[in-house]
Design goal:
Largest sheet: 7 strands, antiparallel
Number of helices: 4
Shape: globular
Order of helices and strands: EEEEHEHEEEEHHEEE
Bound molecules: fe (iii) ion
Strand order of the largest sheet: 2-1-5-8-9-4-3
Length: 210
């Protein structure tokens, strides 16, 4: 068996959100799909240990915010590399309330669901949700999981100095430094002392050369 074949399945990148005691919380998920059109039903896979998992179980509701290719990558750090148990993840993140659910503004749109069933796997619950509302924000391109890995995480952002240098200057020997928290890779002659990971927000201490 070649388990890497599963990487040929395409995914998006989403913020799944709900409430905890009146406070918005959420996490990143890539396992999100529409199961049926009529009635319109979505399925999402959420890890049992995730704080959002408990919140969805309790409220029976969740929102799917669909991230765009040009969404701020720090959203992935905020919702993917911190726990809602410790951090108020929506604090400082532009969001709106639609149908009584929190939705991230910086994305392609949202889908709101009421949980109608749950299936269990050893690590994740698959929540089935009937769509109660959905809307798009303009005409943005949805971020795929592959795009995140190949472009956002694997390369310097377009505005980073290294990116410009790569294009304009003759190739100098580039070194690669990887964020130990989220896997973001920085390429350059050396790691800037004041680097802040654009995805998860940690400093130079959390980078190692690869
Ligand atoms: Fe990072």
């Amino acid at each position: 068996m070649n388990i890497l074949t599963t990487q040929k399945v395409s995914y998006g990148l989403y913020v799944i959100s709900s409430w905890h005691d009146g406070k918005a919380t959420g996490c990143i998920a890539n396992a999100v799909m529409q199961v049926t059109a009529e009635p319109a039903i979505m399925a999402i896979g959420i890890h049992h240990d995730n704080f959002t998992h408990a919140c969805i179980k309790k409220t029976g509701k969740f929102a799917i915010s669909i991230l765009a290719e040009d969404s701020d990558p720090s959203l992935i750090g905020t919702f993917g590399f911190k726990s809602g148990r410790d951090a108020d993840k929506f604090d400082g993140v532009g969001h709106s309330i639609f149908g009584n659910l929190p939705v991230v503004n910086d994305g392609c749109g949202y889908i709101l669901c009421d949980v109608i069933d749950v299936a269990e796997t050893p690590t994740h619950s698959v929540f089935f949700g009937k769509i109660t509302d959905a809307e798009t924000f303009g005409d943005r391109k949805p971020m795929t999981y592959a795009y995140y890995h190949e472009v956002i995480k694997g390369k310097s952002p377009e505005k980073a100095p290294t990116h410009i240098a790569e294009a304009a200057a003759p190739q100098k020997k580039a070194r690669k430094f990887r964020c130990k928290v989220c896997g973001y890779e920085y390429e350059g002659e050396s790691l800037p002392d004041d680097i802040v990971c654009p995805i998860c927000g940690v400093g130079a201490d959390e980078f190692e050369e690869v």
